[in-house]
């Protein structure tokens, strides 16, 4: 695998870019966005700098790419944070100035559709950060979830090893952003049952690659994934979105990664807790349990066929559920299946 560099970290008091390369949802939900900005200032001591397309829905991909390029080029910007995900960042990355990004590496935080940019930076040799959303997590109703807050703080400001912690409680039923009054109320939370481990009792170390599984499939179709040989030894990072893909599609997407030669090269995978509820699909508690179980079975089946010796860790809080742990993308991870411990190097 090609070497990747960790960009220099911001310090409290620094200016950080706040961008919407996927969707300009801050323009539709300003109350949530402003809460996120306030917490960025008050909780982390960082000064957000908004770019022209941050609040614009449907902004031209070239304009969004310009904002990203300028954020990386500006010597006064210490990190870049995405406001939220979306569904068309794949149209933005071709317009980026890669020479500017290479010459000015900075920590980039985002997930979901931001998998497009995380993968792009990975191919440029830059470590980025899977997780962090100004709207979803910094704008969380009630208070910041302590696991999210601590993980984000460590990822922003520190460079050492950090032990991930299983969530004692978790949620996937957010408050309705259309109701400003809902920001005062904590979202519904459910008891956590810890991580689920499968595979050999061994210790695996490597650099991560992956992201949102649906977006990875788009990237494969667009031929924007590095050759399988260059990713051998990587630890696969996968999670699914609020679109709740059925288990058969999760299996098929992973099967296709297997046919590409990718799965056989991954000695381990961190699998995000499956989001199993959305406003358009309000599954019952029993249906949610069944959905998550079916998804775990689909992942298990694919790995059994293409990489049966892999260590699999399920229900890690790294995707579309609450809390959210930050994972360095292209950064180092240690999975200890003996002591059942996961550590990441920020």
TrEMBL record:
Coiled-coil residues: none
GO molecular function, one term: carboxypeptidase activity
Residue intervals of the LD-carboxypeptidase N-terminal domain: 16-131
Residue ranges of every copy of the LD-carboxypeptidase C-terminal domain listed in the record: 205-335
UniProt keyword list: Carboxypeptidase, Hydrolase, Protease
Superkingdom per UniProt: Bacteria
InterPro entries in the record: Carboxypeptidase_A_C_sf, Class_I_gatase-like, LdcA_N, Peptidase_S66_N, Peptidase_S66C, S66_fam
Family: Belongs to the peptidase S66 family.
Protein name: LD-carboxypeptidase
Originating species: Micromonospora craterilacus
Classification of source organism: Bacteria, Bacillati, Actinomycetota, Actinomycetes, Micromonosporales
